[in-house]
Amino acid sequence: MIEFLRSIYYWLVTGLVSIVSLIFYPCQVYGRQNVPSKGGFILASNHESNIDPMLLPVVCPRQMRFMAKDSLFKNPVLGALIRTGGGFPIKRGRADRGALTEFLHQLELGYPVLIFPQGTRGGDKPQAGVGFLAVKSGKPVLPTYIEGTDQVLPKGQACPQRHAVKVIFGQPLMFGPHEEPDIVAKKVMAAIFALKNPS
Length: 199
Known about the structure:
The chain is an alpha/beta fold. It has a single domain (about 1-195), classed as Glycerol-3-phosphate (1)-acyltransferase (3-Layer(aba) Sandwich). It is built from 7 helices and 7 strands, in the order αββαβαβαβαβαβα. It has helices at about 1-25, 50-60, 75-85, 95-110, 130-135, 150, 180-195; strands at about 25-30, 40-45, 65-70, 85-90, 110-115, 140-145, 165-170. β3 (about 65-70), α3 and β4 form a beta-alpha-beta unit. α1 crosses α2 and α5 (about 130-135) packs across α7 (about 180-195). It is globular and about 45 Å long. It starts with a helix and ends in a 5-residue tail after the last helix. The model has no long low-confidence stretch (mean pLDDT about 85).
């Protein structure tokens, strides 16, 4: 019953956010056929704006799980809402084994789990975490490219402005159990940004 109510809440919130999306950031989506129809997978996306975590659940046809910075959970009401919507906390700035364990657990339950390999908005290099999770879980990684959200809500700005955005889902990637996480992370990042200018 709890999971049923959680699912209803997730799609209700996603529906409300999609209305906001139509107003502030009408979105074109490409490659939706590449999203696995069942089973857990890692949705790895570039990160340009604070609206990215709200946009991706709207355009992904699967119910997702995601990590959120632990400071958001200090407010009991907000924390409860985030958890109900599929979020779980991660401590920023250091390895958080609890968050990584929960990430892998949600994948095993069959959910897509969102991660931003850059770590922070506009980061210039991938964090090894995405490589570790891909190798450890053995689940596919779906490279995803977002364009235009930095124009909707630039860094340091509180009020959004209307601007069209684009989301491109690439082909899922698979990695072997003996591959180096750092190298896997670089491959994932390269696959994400290759979607910007497909050959």
